[in-house]
Amino acid sequence: MSATPTFYILHGGESVSRDAALARMRAAMGEDGGLNRTEFDGERTPVAEILAAVRSLPFLAEKRLVIVRDLITHISKRGAGSAGKIATDRLINELPDLPSFARLVLVESGGLRDGNRILKAARALDNGYIRKFDRPRDPARWISERAKSEYAAEISPRAAHAIASLVGDDLLRADNELHKLVCFVDGEREIGEDDVAALTPYVPEANVFEMVDALGLGDGARALELIQRSLHHDPKDPGFRLFTLIVRQFRLLLMMRDHLDRGGSPGGSIAGALGVPPFVAGKLATQARRFRMDQLDLIMKRLQRYDQDMKTGRIEPRLALELLVASLAGS
Question: Who contacts 252 (Cβ-Cβ below 8 Å, separation ≥6)?
Answer without folding.
Answer: 274, 276, 284
